[in-house]
Every structure is written in structure tokens, then in C-alpha cells.
Amino acid sequence: MNIKKIQCNVLLINPPSASDAIPTEKVILEYFDCISDLDYLGDSDVEPNYGLFSIAAYVRQECKKIDPKFSIKYVDLNLIDQMLRKTEKRTINKHDIEKEISRYACDIVGISFMTSSYGTWAEILIPIVFEKTSVHIFLGGIHPTICYREVIEKFKDSISGVVVGEGEEVFYKIVEEILYKKGNLKEIEHLCTPEKLGCDPEIIIEPARLNNFFLSNLPAPAYDIFYKQKDEIIARIYSSRGCINTCTMCSVGSFFRTNSYKEPVNIETDTLIKTIGKLYDLHKIKHFVLGDLNISAKDRLRRFLEELILLNKQKNIKKSWWCQTRGDTVIDEEMCKLLLEAGFKQVAIGCEGATDQQLKWIKKDENVCSVKNALITLTKTGLSTQGYWIIGLPYDTEESVRQTQEVILDYLQTGIVTVPHITVLVPYPGTDLEKHEGTNGIKIVDWDYKNFWMNCDLYGCGKPVYETIDHNGKTLLTRDQIYELWLETLQKVTKCINQIQKEKKHEVINQ
Q: What burial letters (b/e) apply to 359-369, b meaning 16+ CB within 10 Å?
């Protein structure tokens, strides 16, 4: 029986972001079960790909000026994977992917990869898309941007190119050229193709960067192409792209080349407020995420919050917001009150380690005291908090990890952290951590991207791909030792949280 295919000009694919295995270790399961009962906001397992939605909105807007019948669709394999985990207790597999991709007939496919999703799923997904669609396939996202030569070389017989950097404008030019012009891709900037690489194996493709004017005139992200949700849509809003900081483990700096740009590109506050209002009107969104990796400009944040407060009053919007920032930039009592009034419920801060020296080695450029003071101020004002910690920082020893464990437990027991977020380092391609490994306190011992997991959620956990070393290159902690210390930290935190919850219940009973 012939099944009628879903017709579209462009199909955007969000690959599974989880591992192809389900964790079974008791310590891990108990920890994530424990923190799921806390006041936990922030990233969601089924959160869609914001970048693809932004690309979809811009491409659709521009293409409809040429062809009113232009159509763009979105497949979220990560969502399908999460549903299978919940309903069938298994992960997505090759057959599931083939079945989903076979439903579509299109002219162009775009796939966005992170490092771990590329390592785990690229060799399965790309051949399936090539076989089932036989159309132009373009890759984008952080990993293909940083590793475009490697990616092209590996999939040169299947893909038409890699979008390097921010994708909105570049991908539109690709679609315009293929659908409405002569299909000549060689003149498109910020696009690496097998032909370009074949002519010049040393070619340097500069990443696309979008300026303030372009970003401030983008249409609202195309959440309408997302699945017909039973759960709430979580809307991720960015007030800027890039990051002012130079933390050695951050892949965002590599993607945006922020080390050379120095400043992130800001989006006008008026645009943000209009976008929020439109998304709320269309989808009645109740949970928003301010997606910037940190908010460092106090005046900009103040104006945004004041405008958001006005919007909430005008539309009678009641929703919860989450964001992350640093401890030494914007957090004071006045700002915390504005955050609360604007609808923010929780703020996450990167604590990372227990000592100033640990923060210095990852170029965090702040100190433990400022982080702790920010958490205290947030808590006193009535906001809940997340604290981000890393087990296995550069030059870490068993002693320094124990210090980090003590700080985590102290912050939980004193109530200045509501939810702990405990990870290991990942030396993502292009980061300072990766580029200078062997001389910066770590040595990479496993280069398989399939194993590049932060261990920050239940859907991707494993041994870290590095060991910590001293200044002479001598091993301080093996990958197995780091993993065991990470498990030990989860176990201690789980016990601590359970004890805190037990004491709270006891207090309620006695009242």
C-alpha cells in the first residue's frame, strides 16, 4: 500500500540528543529521580531546537515572498526518542528513524548536530536521509561548524555542504539558490561543500555572524512547526548571541568566535518583548527560558525586566521564567526583586569548583566568594537556585574533588542552592580545553565523539574522555577515578537531599 507522503520544500531535522543506551546504574537513577522531585526548571528533555526554529522562521518569511506556497517542516527525532523511552522503555533505533524520514518528500534537508549527537547518530541518520530522500542534505550546528573539514570528508558522498556559523541567512541563500535560481552553491559564503574542499583542502571558511540589525529584525521562532504538543512548549528566548567570557570548556565561544569578537551581539529589547508577546498569544506558553549563557550587562537586563513587567500587566500573563548568569555581574537585591516581579522563578549559576584556583584554571574570571554571595542574595529574595558544579576540573586531585563535594553539600544544607547540577568536563572540539589539552591540566584519552557526555542528565552518562594531569603531564586522576568520584558525589548529594526533605516533612507534621 502506498502511503501518501508529507510534501514540503524544506525538511529540518533535530537528531536524537541522547545516548543510544539507557543508564542502569542504581546511583545514577536514584540521583536523577531525587532531583526531579525538586523545584527544577531550565532545560527540558523534550525542548525543541531553537536554532532550527529561528532558521525556519526566517527562511519561510523570505521564501514566501517568492513562492506563497513554500512549505517547511520539522522532524524532532529527539522527541520521538524520549517518548519511546517513556512508553516502551527503549531508545530510538534505525528502523524508527527510517520510518519517520520515509514519511516526507522534500527538496532540501537541514540537520543540526551537537558533538555528542553527531558522534552517536550521524553515521546512522545521514545515510538514511540520503537513501530515503535523495535530495540536497546540509549540516549545521556547533559541531559541523567547528569540524567542517572532518565532517565533509566523512560524508562527502552524501551531503551537499556544511553551514559554518549562524544559519539563518546562509541557509536561506542555499534554499533560494536551489529552488529559485541555478543551484550554484560555490559563491555562497560561510558554506563549505565537498567541491570547495576538494579544490582546496586547506580552505578556511569563516563562520557566519549576524549583526544587531539582522537579529533585531528576525521573525519570532517558528514554534508552529513543532509537534502538536500534549506537554507545554518551553520557549527559549535569547537577548544576545555569543558570550563575553572565555571559559576554557565552553563550545559557544568556539562557535561564535567570541574570543576575537570580545562582545556578544545584542538583540534589541523591543524585539524581545514583541517576540515574547507573540509567542504567548499564539501558544499560551507558561514557561520561558532566557537562553543566554550568562547575562552580564546590568543596564540591559534591567530595561528588559522593566519592559517584561509592563507586558505581563498588559496581557495579564502569568508564567515562570528561568535563566542562568554569573555570580559577580548582575545579581544584587534590586535586580533580584525585578526578576521576581517579572516572573522569574529560578536562576542558575556556575559554581564549578570549591576554590578560586580551580576557577582560575578554567578562566572563569570570578571567585568563589562572589558566587556564594549571589546565591545567598537570590535565596533571600525568594528565588530558587541551581548550582552548576564540575567533577574533574583541570589539575583536579581526589583532595580537590572532596573539597568540591563539601561545598555542594554545604550549599544544599544551608538552602542557598535548591537544585544541584553535577557534571564532568567535556573537551569539545575548538574549545581552549581541547586545543591545549596536555598542557592545561587535562589529557584527552578517548577521541570518540560518541562518548562526549557531560553527565548532566539521565540520557547521556559515561566515563569522561580525559584524565587530569599535573604541570609535568603526570596523571592525577584517571578517567575511571573521575567517574567514580562523580558517582560518589551523586550518592552523597542524593543522601543529603533526602535527609533535607525528610526534615522538612517532620517540621510540617510538628506544626
A: bebbebebebe
